[in-house]
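fyi for ur records
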Amino acid sequence: MVFVGGGLRMKPAVAVIATSLLTFSAIPFHLLALAIESNASKHTIALIGANVVAMEREELLSNYTLVIAEGKIASLGPADAVVVPDGAVRIDARGKYVMPGLIDAFTHVDDESNLILFVANGVTTVRNTAGGYARHLALRDQVARGELLGPRIFTTGGDISSPPLNYDSMEPVTTSERAEQITEEVKRMGFDGVMVYSRISADAHRGAITASKRVGLPLTGHQSLNIPPAEVAQSGQRSVENLIGYVRLSTGELGLSSDKVAAMAASFRDHGIFVIPTLTVHRVRGRYRLASAEEERYINKCARLAPFSQNQRLGPQSSYTYGGAPQLVSMLHQQRVKIVAGTDAGYPGVLPGFSMHGPYGELQNLAEAGLSHYEALQAATALAAEFLGIADRVGTVSVGKVADLLLLDGNPLDDLSNAARIEGVFLQGRYIQKQELNQRLEAVATIYANGRDRFADLPLPPQSSEREFVARFELSSGGCVHGEERVLIYGPKSGKRRIVAQSSIDPSQSTKTTVVAEISKHFRVERVEVNRQGPEGTSRLSMIRQGETALISGRRPYYGDLSLREQIDQRTILAGPILSDEIVFDMAGTFFLASDRLAKLAAGQSLELKLKQLELDPDKHGRNATVGDMVWKVLRDDDDVRNPAGCRECKGFVISTTGRSGIGEQEFRLTLDASDHPLVIQFGQADDSFQLLRTGPPPT
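which gave:
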């Protein structure tokens, strides 16, 4: 059985920066990530005379030889006792050290570019948390099939939480019945586990536990703030993570007395609960810089320079200090609680792979919290494998196990920094030398340094009539462009007008979406078709108005075939989806569909619009993951000071809605030009904002 869980994410605007946004050059990422065709992947390999850190016990096996055949460790023993088969590829490993590949048990795998960052740092297995996205399933499966070079991936679904939610787009779960339904859907879609957030109610937690046991899906996640730790330990939850609920997010101080920690530790120990403290994140919250300038070359500059830093979320005068988290880990460790290494890679300032190493990396953090060098390494190898339920395959250097191994230039038992002195990585028997790892890293850095035509591989639908209007928008925040959208309006044909909107959003969202809407002569949307391409494949959906019913059908990868009937009234606007997985704002095309209704408002007037949208939102489940019911409360406001276009002939509107799940509020400002076409759409306020700005017609 495989055990996985999840972590804390930020939405709506912050999450986009928390992931590794990037800009492609003409080189596709899949060409960089393809599994290598090397002799090492096809032939028997012998490492001759190595020093082996087997991680079965705290000892060094000197002058040993390993034979790797068909991706597994075929033999292991003293160099003079192991027979190397004829024809084997021999690697002189004298003076080198061999240890198991590292396991990062708490990460956020954003896109294909992350994969080589993990591998180059010796991370051969990752657990993707809060990973309720079909693209994560696709990355996992492509790595497993050998189509991508990357670490073994386990990924969660569910993200079950109760109000108040961590972010507006998340679905609130208040009953045990709904938690059971979500858990069953997560199982059906093929996720490796279900996760819960810290705010999950006792009732919802009970439902998730009940269903997870019934369908054989492990449940992990945060300590619920609504359930005592002892009850969580006894419930069947596999782990507690991030130290949420124990360390105060405002100050970093330990929020429990010594007696309560001792009681909690005893309960965790006795019930076999694993703790994944992610001390790297607590370092970042304490304003430590984890990544070097060299390492930051491998992520997009917009992710590095964007305004949504952890410091700003905590406040410029944040009093958060790095103290309570390592203190708690030390106390848990003294009570023999199982500590597992996880970095929360993908969180702002926590780079995939690199965050395992360095003076503030997770290995060193664990050692400073009281673990010995061996115990810190064990947390990232044997114990992590036990937690994931794959100890029979990886985690130690043992005969019969998969050859996920590191060849190092120094002894990691003496100095943890030696775990980063990587000469080569064995990934399920494939040997990747340091030179090739560096070349692949440089290829990623080169891609980030260059721009691209985002619409190069996104053709327009066949033209049915003359174009009335063409526009191009940039999606930007913090001085960075994260994607583009083009909108075309075709003149009436048989009394109907067509609007085509195409958005191309950079990874990690990595989506290309085409929306085609058919509008009657009465300016009513009669039909919407959506085609979205992502790492997981292509989603194709249609929504057709039939009287007071909207018929929705299509197919989504991993979700399967969909067929729904939704009640609507004659004034409901049928509309397209949000921009991408994690940018939970509408495409510009939706504002074009609504602009005819809005343009009729006089200054100071208001109205309420109902929209039925094809959402493609992975933070919801079942029907809710595809269909959204939104209400816009619109006020005509032509205040020139607030008008970002500075256009006196333009019309300004303030639009407020509830959050995507009916929780919280969103507000954005729309500016229509003199022809009543959208010019600027702004989301959020001040620095915490995104905008879709019309930059002119797209190039022909």
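The radius of gyration is 26 Å. thats all i got for now
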